[in-house]
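step 4 of 6: structure.
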Amino acid sequence: MDRFINEIKAELGNNGDFHLQRDYLADAAVMLLGFNTLIDFIKTRTVLHKHAESILLQNQPSEDLWGAIGELMEGDVLKAISSIYEGKLIIHFENTSRFIIMEPVPAMLDRSIDSPTNENVIQGALDSFTEGIDINIGIVRKLVNSDEIRIDSFSAGRSRKNKLSLLYIDGQADIELVNSIRNHIEKNIQMEAYNLQGLAKMLGFPSWNAISKFNTTELPHHAVQNLRKGKVILFVDRLPFALILPSLFWDMFAAENDRNFPLPIMLAIRLIRIIGILITLITPGLYVALVSVNPEVLQIQLALSVAQSREGVPYPALAEIIFMLLILELILEASVRLPKSIGPTITMVGGIILGQAAVEAKLVSNLLIIILAATTIANSTIVGFQNSVSIRLFKYAIVILGAIFGILGLVAGLVFLSAYLASLNTYGKSYLYLNVKGNENNGG
Amino acid sequence: MHVMLMYVISHLGLIFFMYPGNVISSTEQGHWLPVLLGVVIHFIFINIYMKGLSYFPKKDIIRIYAGIGKGTAILFIAPVFLYFSMILLITLRAYAEIITIVFLSKTPLWAIMLLLISISTYIAAKGVETIFRTGLLLSLLFLPIIIFIFFTSFQNVDWRYVVPLDADLGFIIKRTYLESFFAFSGGFLFLGFVQPYFSYDRKYILWAAAFLIPFFLFSVYIPVLTFGQATSATTFLPYVVAVDAININWLMFDRVTMFFLLSLISFIMLYLALVSWKAIRILSHYLPSIKPVKLLLALAAAVYIACFFIPDWKDVEKLFWWNTFLRFYILIAIPFSLFFFGRCMKRKGIDESI
């Protein structure tokens, strides 16, 4: 045992999966070091030996072999240790301080490319991104297939390095945007970026934004289309989706897969989504406003039937709607939490509450159930889960304003929301632009 | 595009409330003449104003006047600031009153004013780009409603009320007619403030102004055509009453007025935001040490408190009337002075180059 091995052992010996194996390559006795959880040792050794054999058969000196299998280093123990942590194999020559860092056959820790789990696609490509950053970049490369794609890689974080990659198409992407993203990443390279909040902090976005600055997608086709339009993709290792920057308002309505339909159908689908967002925002507030503040707006028959449906309901419309919306949110949250096998129970129980029981117990009105159902359904038409969550939140602001000021409050809420959306921007790109190359003439 | 939209919506917000009443009560027949006169004057002044501004590319009017001299700055900028504060005060108070009258009779006035001022202050605090983008979103949302209701308001029209067409010029000196210039002079000044942020084509602004002509004309004529001059002169907000008379069977709502008014009020909020932004631009130019946001909050608070010193509608009208003199001063002095200084500059420039 020489000094080099001892130093590494002192550092890594208390890891149960640290593997040390003696082997002979060509004419040298070597030690193979690495984690057997990250490295497929059997396959790696087979590869190594085949390599050695083929070099020896051609009567080349063994120095050539070392050069061919990896990076030859001398003495740097710390480098060896950090390479082992990164999943590399260290081949150490006994009784020297020389070693080789080799890219081994990795243990299969990534799932294979699957169909998307959070975004459904009808009539379109069914592959999706996975957790491995290299696989994701590979998928994008396969789809773009152009010499103009640029990939910048960073590794961020203090204790554990996490890989980040920035992808854009040269000539399409706005170079200022790319530079500001790159500068922010380089400046904050010490920050941890395992999740979107951390990443947002790293990129200098305010953390109190109700709308996500990232447009996340699992679908490679969607991501690549955005890339072609001049947007920028960020990949974070271990996050199974692409982060498209900047996120724009129009992204709530337009999915790339729409273009697999005829143009009129596509326009109709997008119109439905626009109506969906309006219904989500307006109907709960309108209900409260009409019932509690401005019933005279309705035609008399309608006002009477609304009043009739609320007969016997013991509390004001605001309490009624907040109560039911809360239950609805609880159901939504619960169905995310529960395992798939118990999930249907929640659907059933929720269906009973939101269906007949609450109405028959005279706790809420019939009309409210219809409005809640419409709201929830409409909310789901929005493209991108992170967008629909934001809209879900804004709905409450409008409900409360509507309860105080009636329809005036509703309108004030919409004005406020418009102003909020209008004030958002990502490095100077307004949230309301229709595309990234927008100037003041084509966007909001 | 933005500037054009903003121009249209800030005027639409002003047209439909006070303007018809003022014009209708200013003359008994031939209402087209007062409207047309107003429109023509409006056109002349915005033309001169924009011409004047075009001598100073990429500069807003604060810097133009400040560049000319201290005296001019005081002579022109101070009244403009005063005028803006007055507009804020009057608009806020008047519209809160209108809202109470038309549909929120139980809600206290202070709550409505608080809502209006806080939203417009929020928008103003976010800056001019937000104001303009909000304008775009709001016009996408509400302009269709306004145009739809504008067309349905022809429902009860009796065209025989158009006659007699002949008109005399007696209305010019009437107080109500002079007050009606509120609708013309309120919005145009912002063209001088947006220069460094947005560029615009003069032609488009004129198109926008032309687009507004039918609204000016019919906001007056629809009440007249619906009720006749004698009746509509007695109503407080003639156009609103005329829209209230609309009955659309297939729509589930009885009072379409509500939606019309509210769409207009959303534009008014934006207009208030724009005016407070302009006022703050002036203030922060002279008080650069204080943060604009603080100035804005102070201004909003001052306006809000001042509103409580106006006990009822009569005082609003009195204030409105006092403001008329200031309004004409602004309407005439600012465009002409800009034009004049612009010409001087140009001539001087030519002399020097020779």
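step 5 of 6: annotate
 - The radius of gyration of chain A is 29 Å.
 - Residues 309 and 367 of chain A are 7 Å apart (CA to CA).
step 6 of 6: archive
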